[in-house]
Each structure stands twice: as C-alpha cells, then as structure tokens.
Amino acid sequence: MKNIAYIDGQNFMHRVAEVLTEANLISDKQEIFAVDIDSYARVLKN
Fold first, then answer.
1. Can you tell me the distance from the alpha carbon of 6 to that of 28, in angstroms, rounded to the nearest whole number?
2. Cβ–Cβ under 8 Å, residues 17 and 6
3. Which of 7, 35, 43, 45 has a CA-to-CA distance to 23 between 20 and 30 Å?
4. Alpha carbon 29 to chain centroid, angstroms
5. In angstroms, rounded to a whole number, what is the distance separating the alpha carbons of residues 16 and 22?
6. Across residues 21-43, what is the average pLDDT?
7. pTM here?
C-alpha cells in the first residue's frame, strides 16, 4: 500500500469524492461538492 499526502483542500476534496464514488456512497464525484461533508463523515465512522 502506498501513502499519499494531500496538502491543499481541493486535492483532499477530490480524493474524498473518488473514495466515496468507489464505495458507492455517491453516484458522481460532483455530488460531494453539493452536500454537507459532516454527513459523509458520520457515514464513514459507522
């Protein structure tokens, strides 16, 4: 497994969108930018 560091917020948000899309938690990467990130964080914690 490789480690990747995301420095700025935009890269972080794109990576979060990619992970959520791959996990089928969102259907499109653009969806992450239109919703409350706290709700996704709660889903990921459970």
1. 21
2. no
3. 7
4. 8
5. 10
6. 80
7. 0.53
